[in-house]
Fold CHM4C protein.
Amino acid sequence: MSRISKFFKGGGSAASKGRGGPSPQEALARLRETEEMLSKKQEYLETRIERELAAARQHGTKNKRAALQALKRKKRYEKQLNQIDGTLSTIEFQREALENSHTNTEVLKNMGYAAQAMKKVHENMDLNKIDDLMQDITEQQDVAQEISDAISNRAAFGDEFDE
């Protein structure tokens, strides 16, 4: 089966059919294949247009009928080329949207994993215990400050006499 018929008839791996659709990677690969095929067809049509234009110039005024036929074929090829340009734009847009959707899905999945990990880390933490611990830390910092203040005050030896 050719690539084109596979693409339009849905010929893909059995695994992708069993899951209810192709994976994002499979869809992206197909879109890229289609882009490549259309790009090759674009190149082919561009060369055909150049040949027909050259043929029209060659026949010029000598053989008007052949020149007109060449120009008509050139116009037909240009129409096909415009259609391919539009199709390529649509495919590029769809590929970019699929890539963004796949990226968003992966980001969301990873954020879910991170949320689960945070939940697991916080399982053994009790807010009351944390509040008590913070109060203990604050009290100990106050005690340390009082000790530091007491040590750093100048000793007033001899300044205070009891008469």
Remarks:
- The first helix runs from residue 3 to 9.
- Residues 12-16 have pLDDT under 50 and may be disordered.
- Residues 54 and 70 are 9 Å apart (CA to CA).
